[in-house]
Fold this protein.
Amino acid sequence: MWGFARASDLIAVAVLAALSPVGGAALGDPAGRVALGDAGLRVSLADAGVRVSLADTGGGAVRSDTGGGVPAPARVVSINLCTDQLAMGLAAPGQLLSVSWLAADPRSSAMAAEAGRYRLNRRQAEEVYLMRPDLVLAGTFSDPAALALLRRLGLRVETFAPVTSLRGVRAAVLRMGRLLGREGAARAEVEKMDVALARLTPPKGLPEKTAALYYPNGYSPGGGTLANAILAAAGFRNLAARTGRTGAGTLPLERLVMAAPSVIVTSHPYPGASRAEAILRHPALREVEKTAKVVYSGPSWVCGTPEVVKAVAQMAAVR
């Protein structure tokens, strides 16, 4: 008989067991029974003759691209925007079953078009479980309750932390390659990225230029962020980092005006009205923009994937 820490677990497991194509057997009970000891309730799918089938949308055998005969995961589901894109870039045909709905949003995903080839999920534990994945990819900030439930149900869950450097991009690509059994493809992707970045590296001896990252509410990533690494790779100093700040935070508009940066990196406004975006229309900022170049960042700035090369190229073009 199983033990559960919360009543919500009892309900979730009962529902999942009832909907599972193999009933309680999928949850570790060969007889197809799920015992809910705390409630004194026993659900017996086998005895009740319940038979529920789900369409199999994939899951053929996938072999590692480095040989060795070790089977790679064949039914992969991703529930994080960044793991979505890492997986789409490396997965073998038919290996990746589903990505999150955010992967199809062109405002945040650099691979929105590619995401249309996959089933989109809402990052809910119930729908993920019913896809019967052998590997779930998530972020360290994904819903902890959903991840905990998936793990309690016996699924393998691997999480990726937000990437904050170009070295971190390389590490994330290589790790995803190992998880998917696509190490050869991952190494090739990293090599291609390094060649592209080398071509974008500014010549030595050029005068130093400063760029200001400035978004709604004055948000401005400082040192130790992916945006800072993108600026550095293109030969810019990050104004927020120059103030001694690391990580996320805001930059007072007065500091930006006094610094008179060469480039201002900002975002396109969303449809409708937003008080958070009002500062981007401030007359003082408009004056700075008369002499500074304005660059609009896009999806290639969001995640630590090889797509960051496009962001570096965007900045190198205004260097």
Remarks:
- DSSP finds 13 helices and 13 strands in the chain.
- The radius of gyration is 24 Å.
- The chain has a mean pLDDT of 86.
- Residues 234 and 315 are 6 Å apart (CA to CA).
